[in-house]
Amino acid sequence: MALTRPQGAVWNRTDNLTASTAVDQDGTPSVLDIDVLSTANTLATTITAFDSGTAGQHLLVIFGDALTTVDFSGSTIKGNGLTDRLFANGESMSCAYDGTNWYCEIQDTIDTSATGTSLDATPDVAGLTVLTTANAGSTTITTLDGGTPGQTVLVVIGDANTTIDFSGSSMKSNYSIDRLMRNGESLSCTYDGTNWHCVFINSVASIQALSGAGAVDVVSEITEITTTGADALTLANGVDHQRKFLVMASDGGAGTLTPTNLGNGATLTFDDVGDCADLIFTNGSWFFLGGTATLS
What we know:
- The protein is mainly beta.
- It has 3 domains: 90 residues; 90 residues; 89 residues, Sandwich (Jelly Rolls), CATH 2.60.120.
- Helices cover 0% and strands 41% of the residues.
- It is built from no helices and 28 strands.
């Protein structure tokens, strides 16, 4: 295949360039007088440098396997937001050398997708960029197996039976509590070699419909209160930085909420339809941030 020498970091196909395949499992492949470098690793390999480069050199790297990770976080190779990346077979990046560092831009990305095995609590994500769940029964995911440092996986929830253990596993998020996911939700998870750090991309709020006296749960983001008289309501402690929203949906009498710990009061009273309270849990207590419920 004929390629043209890049202007900046842009490649066009017209002129012949010098191409080479890196030595299998070489973490510092030589690029002396090379314009195009292809990988062909048979085992997991992390590239930390391109040896023998010259200032001003441009390099197109083509990944010919699904086993090559580029160290963008602590090496002379810069790019990808300084986050290590496991490349998929067929992906490529364009790099330019300033005499000290290689500055790289990922050009072609490939989505590798799979559907998880039903009822698998540790689905295999080796080489994947997208994992879709399809659990036929209640399943709690505690980790994603087969990950490599720097790998990012989009987890798409394709059922209403999947819980993710955020409280005591390698799955981490700002929830810090286990969460029953809703069909259609998704989260982006990046692996640091020990833990998966997840950010919700598409989240569907869970709602508790509470009728009469009883406990406001600490699992749902929203609780809709229907009172049937002068109802006493309770709220247990949450976890640090957890948010909770309560609103009166139907008025059959005053509903008085007494949390186990309320940092800036003792009770919250809901008198009328639409009365609401926005709470956050921090430093061992719930705090009333605002709303039309009466704080006392």
